[in-house]
Amino acid sequence: MEVSLNFSGGAELLFGKIKQHTISLPAEETWSMKKLLNWIKDNLLKERPELFLQGDMVRPGILVLVNNADWELVGQLDYLLQNKDEIVFISTLHGG
């Protein structure tokens, strides 16, 4: 299964300044958003995980879109990924 991950609004800084990642996940497994977030933490996150995750959930202030829809509309952590899904993480937190 292939999934596109996009990080912007500053979130990309936690991922080696790379905004777009296309990842391949074992298709024989069922992938929920919760499982994906753990995979991201273990495989892509380069620094300061506390700025991206709070427990098993994405930190408040990071907007998550699944195929251009707010993830709250599709079940958040319970959403089951489909091949070719596009997941976008946009940080709305800005220092000053």
TrEMBL record:
Main localisation: cytoplasm
Q: Which UniProt keywords apply?
A: Cytoplasm, Isopeptide bond, tRNA processing, Ubl conjugation pathway
Q: In which pathway does it act?
A: tRNA modification; 5-methoxycarbonylmethyl-2-thiouridine-tRNA biosynthesis
On modification after translation, the UniProt record reads: C-terminal thiocarboxylation occurs in 2 steps, it is first acyl-adenylated (-COAMP) via the hesA/moeB/thiF part of the MOCS3/UBA4 homolog, then thiocarboxylated (-COSH) via the rhodanese domain of the MOCS3/UBA4 homolog.
Known function: Acts as a sulfur carrier required for 2-thiolation of mcm(5)S(2)U at tRNA wobble positions of cytosolic tRNA(Lys), tRNA(Glu) and tRNA(Gln). Serves as sulfur donor in tRNA 2-thiolation reaction by being thiocarboxylated (-COSH) at its C-terminus by the MOCS3/UBA4 homolog. The sulfur is then transferred to tRNA to form 2-thiolation of mcm(5)S(2)U. Also acts as a ubiquitin-like protein (UBL) that is covalently conjugated via an isopeptide bond to lysine residues of target proteins.
The UniProt family comment states: Belongs to the URM1 family.
| Source domain of life | Eukaryota
Residues with the 1-thioglycine modification: 96
Where is it located? Cytoplasm
Q: Which GO terms describe its cellular component?
A: cytosol
For this entry, list what GO says about its biological process: protein urmylation; tRNA thio-modification; tRNA wobble uridine modification
InterPro entries given in the database record: Beta-grasp_dom_sf, Mopterin_synth/thiamin_S_b, Urm1
Q: Where is this cross-link: Glycyl lysine isopeptide (Gly-Lys) (interchain with K-? in acceptor proteins)?
A: 96
Protein's name according to its UniProt entry = Ubiquitin-related modifier 1 homolog
